[in-house]
Amino acid sequence: MSEPFVDLNAIFNLAIKETEELIKLGFDISDPCIVTPLGWYANKYPEIAERCNEALLELSDKQATSTPAFVGVGYSESNLHSF
After folding, report:
1. Which of these, 54, 55, 60, 79, could form a disulfide with 30 (CB 3.0-4.6 Å)?
2. CA angle, 73 as apex, 18 and 30 as ends, to 5°?
3. How do residues 18-42 score in pLDDT, each as one tens digit?
């Protein structure tokens, strides 16, 4: 039994699109707690891992330069009640 054909270019393009959607939704893709589609597909298909990692770095840099830093965000005694 032969293995089914896997279109790695289509998978890579889908991973880019899905990761861009996360950015649009406001997720910080540089957060190590987030597994992005690019990271997930890179792990699943080692053949495209380098392309995925490079694209993730580019999107992370792009997000960092286009999104203003959150000022005053963090934990403090005054805002813990909201959690």
Report:
1. 60
2. 30
3. 999 999 999 999 998 999 999 999 9
Q: Which two tokens stand for residue 8?
A: 């790695």
Task: Write the pLDDT tens digit of every residue in 31-77.
Answer: 989 999 999 999 999 999 999 999 999 999 999 988 766 434 444 45
Query: Is the model's pLDDT at 2 over the cut of 90?
Result: no
Q: Is 59 helix (H, G, I), strand (E, B) or coil?
A: helix
For residue 1, the model assigns a pLDDT of: 54
| Dist CA 29 CA 50 (whole Å) | 17
Q: What does the alpha-carbon distance between residue 58 and residue 20 come to, in Å, rounded to a whole number? A: 11
d(CA 62, CA 55): 10
